[in-house]
Each structure stands twice: as C-alpha cells, then as structure tokens.
C-alpha cells in the first residue's frame, strides 16, 4: 500500500499497480475518519495506517456499497469498536430492497447519512449515479472533495459510466450515467480545490477545462 501524506489527510492507495483503489484518512485535531475500506484483504494494512496517525478512529464512511469500497469494514470496526460506520440512507434502502449490483454490508451501519449532514469537518453531498445512494464528502477546511466512484482518474479522468479502456471497471459497475453527470455538474458548482476518487490520482479543482472536457465526453455517449 502506498500512502500519500498531506497535512489534513492520508491517501491510502492499495494495489497501486494492478487495480488501484483509494481509501482516505481524514485527520482532525482529536480524531480521524476513514472514507472507504478498499477491498477484502486490505484491512490489516488500513488498520496499520489508522494506528500510524495516533488519533482515535471515530467514523468509517462508505461512499457506496461496492466490494472494493466496503472491503474489510467489519475487521476494521472490530479493531476500533468505538468507530461509527456510516453509509447514505438511500444506499441502505437500495441494499434492503436487494438492488442488483450492490454488495451487501457485513455489518449493520451505526448512522445513515443524508444531504448536508456533517461528520466532523466533512459535509455530506448526495451524488447519485454510479450507485443510486452514492455520496461525496467535502472537507470544509480545505474544500477537498472525496467522491467515491462518481469520477475516476485511473485510465483517464472520467465521470462514472464513461468507459476508459485502461481501467473500465467503475464504468461497468455504474447504474445511471445520466444521473452521475448531473451529480458531477452539481458538485462542481461548489468551490472544490481537489477531487479525490476511488480509483486514480487527485484531480485539481481549478482545472475548469479538464472538468468541462469530462462533462462533454460523458454527455456525448
Ligand atoms: Zn463502485
């Protein structure tokens, strides 16, 4: 696992070469929050990363219910039993309805999230499309947006559903591409300084041309 350290976050990149999956640790003054858990088998490494912060893990937020984001959430919760597991209320409803393509959770979440909920410094934004209950989190201290699979940058920057042949997996798993484009357009109206997705490197928020190209590319399809 590769870790990119910044002042207020750790970007944990599992399997950087073959199937890059990102999880993020958000560092606050007295606690930290884990966004996504990568895939199964990565729990021990993520637990090590959490311990390396010397901060208690207070929240585990799942951006959506796919296996490469849920991973070893149960193992991580076992290691940090005080951490509250969160997913969006919409995604939970979809799971309960047995919606195809979602990965059932191995545990009961502690808190269900809705638009504009706050989790420490993070602000919840509902950004459906990749799955119907997908959420993004904006760190209100630095305007970093953690968007799950709403966009990918591995294989080329793209909105969910816009297939990139070098890394087509997020597109295969996308439920509603039109909705994803709409969510992304809504999200870029916020003053985002950087986008952090589930797969690939960060995308700077001030690259209007890149963002517009991503939207135009997706809308063409
Ligand atoms: Zn996904």
From TrEMBL:
Gene3D superfamilies: Ribonuclease Z/Hydroxyacylglutathione hydrolase-like. Residues 20-199 form the Metallo-beta-lactamase domain. InterPro entries: Metallo-B-lactamas, NDM-1-like, RibonucZ/Hydroxyglut_hydro. Pfam families: Lactamase_B. It comes from the Bacteria. This is Glyoxylase, beta-lactamase superfamily II.
């Amino acid at each position: 696992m590769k870790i990119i350290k910044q002042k207020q976050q750790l970007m944990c990149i599992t399997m950087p070469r073959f199937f890059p999956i990102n999880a993020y640790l958000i560092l606050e003054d007295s606690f930290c929050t884990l966004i996504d858990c990568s895939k199964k088998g990565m729990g021990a490494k993520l637990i090590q990363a959490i311990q390396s912060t010397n901060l208690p893990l207070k929240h585990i937020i799942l951006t959506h219910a796919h296996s490469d984001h849920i991973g070893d959430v149960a193992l991580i919760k076992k290691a940090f039993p005080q951490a509250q597991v969160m997913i969006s209320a919409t995604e939970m409803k979809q799971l309960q309805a047995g919606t195809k393509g979602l990965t059932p959770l191995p545990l009961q979440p502690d808190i269900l999230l809705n638009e504009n909920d706050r989790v420490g410094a993070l602000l919840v934004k509902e950004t459906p499309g990749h799955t119907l209950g997908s959420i993004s989190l904006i760190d209100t201290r630095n305007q970093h947006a953690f968007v799950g699979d709403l966009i990918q940058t591995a294989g080329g920057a793209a909105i969910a559903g816009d297939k990139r042949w070098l890394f087509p997996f997020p597109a295969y798993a996308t439920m509603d591409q039109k909705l994803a484009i709409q969510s992304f357009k809504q999200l870029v109206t916020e003053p985002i300084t950087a986008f952090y997705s589930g797969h690939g490197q960060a995308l700077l928020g001030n690259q209007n041309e890149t963002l517009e190209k991503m939207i135009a590319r997706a809308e063409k399809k």
